[in-house]
Structures are given as C-alpha cells and as structure tokens.
Amino acid sequence: MPALISDFRSGQYRTFPQSKEPADLLEAKLIEVVGYDPSSDALSQMWDRVDRHLGPELSPQVAEAFQSALRRHLDEAESIVDQLDSESELEDHQKALVKLASRVGEDAGSALQHAKARIRELNSETPVEAPESVPEPKSREPDKFTDTEILSLFSTLRRH
C-alpha cells in the first residue's frame, strides 16, 4: 500500500484520472489496517515500508495512526507477552518493541522486562529430558554349524 500511495502521489500513474483521490483512499485504508492492532513485528514491518515509500509524503494521520498503535502495544505489553508461548516469538516481540519505541521516543523498558520474565517462566516450565539410553547390543558368539547341518540346509536347493 505505501508503494502504491507513493506512486500515485509522485505522478507515476499520470494517465490515471484524479490520482490524488486513490492515494487518499489507500492511505485511509492503511490507517484502518494499522488500527486493527497488528502484532508488533507486523507493525514494525509496515512502518519500515511506509518510511521507505512515503518518506516526506507521509501524512500526519498515518504517523499518528502508527504512534497510537505503538502506544497501545506498550500499554498492553503484559497481556500481549502472556499470550506468546515460545522464546523465539518473545525475542521477536522484544526486538520489534525496541525498534518501534525508538521511533516515537517512548520507553519500552517495562514491556521488555515482562517479556524477559516470560522467557524465564517458559524455560522453567520446560522440563529438561534426559536422552533415552539405547541399550548396547549383547555380544553373542557366532553360530556354529556342522557340515551335516549345512548340507541339510542347502539340500533342498540342490534338488531343484
């Protein structure tokens, strides 16, 4: 969406009638999507694309939508973190929060501390299982056959 908005605003689609109108409509939809509270990682990726494509063309409404979404993430950090069930998800969440908080000058310290506590909690819940031991094969002596036994074994083959 940010790339399309930028293309419309920069005149990339000059043949398209009234290119400002589609850009404004797309921007309104982008603001709406940000308002749906995407995950912190998704919000960070979206903001990266907005920065890359819109830059100076970024409207104050888009910036406000992202800042509001980030503040909601920080305010609801504990409940968001409590819903995450893996260490990798929590680490990704932490990275995204640091990145987002730095963009708007907010402090993500308490959210990060809660995420670290959740990682410790998950690690303590996961029992460390000892690997199953595989029993060593018992050594056995090779079978010994007499000449008569071997001849008897192969006698049926000789007949055919």
Radius of gyration: 32 Å
Query: How many strand segments?
Result: 0
User: Unreliable runs, pLDDT <50, ≥5 residues?
Assistant: none
* Distance between the ends: 80 Å
Mean pLDDT: 80
Q: Determine the number of helices (DSSP H or I, runs of at least 4 residues).
A: 8
The helix content is 55-70%
Q: Any idea what the shape is?
A: elongated
Q: Could you tell me the strand content as a percent range?
A: under 5%
Structural class: mainly alpha
Explain how this protein is built.
The protein has 160 residues and is mostly helical. The chain is built from 8 helices and no strands. It has helices at residues 2-9, 20-35, 40-53, 60-75, 77-83, 87-104, 109-125, 147-159. The longest helix is centred in the middle third of the chain and has 18 residues, at 87-104. It is elongated and about 100 Å long.
How do the helices and strands line up, and which of them pair or pack?
Blueprint: H1 2-9, H2 20-35, H3 40-53, H4 60-75, H5 77-83, H6 87-104, H7 109-125, H8 147-159
Provide a quick synopsis of the model.
The protein is mainly alpha-helical. It has eight helices and no strands.
Search tags:
mainly alpha; 160 residues; single chain
